[in-house]
Amino acid sequence: MTIKSIATTILRIIPAVILLQTLFYKFSAAPESVYIFKTLGLEPWGRIGLGILELIVAILIFVPKTTWLGALLGIFIMGGAIFLHFTKLGVVVQNDGGTLFLLAWITFVCCVILVWLHRSHIPHNNYSDL
After folding, report:
1. Where are the transmembrane segments (predicted)?
2. This prediction's pTM
């Protein structure tokens, strides 16, 4: 294995594990998750819907041909989470010491790097043929 493939594998594992780990809290209606989504006015459907979307994103990140798509979706989801931490939730949520905020940033950065590394896989139209 090359250094690039090892780095890519690590960059896939980190956000996927973070996303999959938080599913337990979303799907089990953990008090912290319920609090977050009540604060946002999205409980319970936002919590469950986002959990399903995060599961899809984690799977897409693991599949080499769809890593770019999963990472791109991850950027949007984590960008939204970071924005909501700044605007409605605060960096610290229910005395978590900023853990959720930090995990959102780690996932966001990994996804940005993955999109960059897999940019050649992103389908695009070539309008020069027109």
Report:
1. 45-63, 68-86, 98-117
2. 0.91
pLDDT in single tens digits along all 130 residues of the chain: 798 889 899 999 999 999 999 999 999 999 999 999 999 999 999 999 999 999 999 999 999 999 999 999 999 999 999 999 999 999 999 999 999 999 999 999 999 999 999 998 888 766 655 5
- Tell me the C-alpha distance between 82 and 108, whole Å: 9
Number of residues assigned to the chain:
130
Q: Which of 15, 3, 20 minimizes the C-alpha distance to 110? A: 15
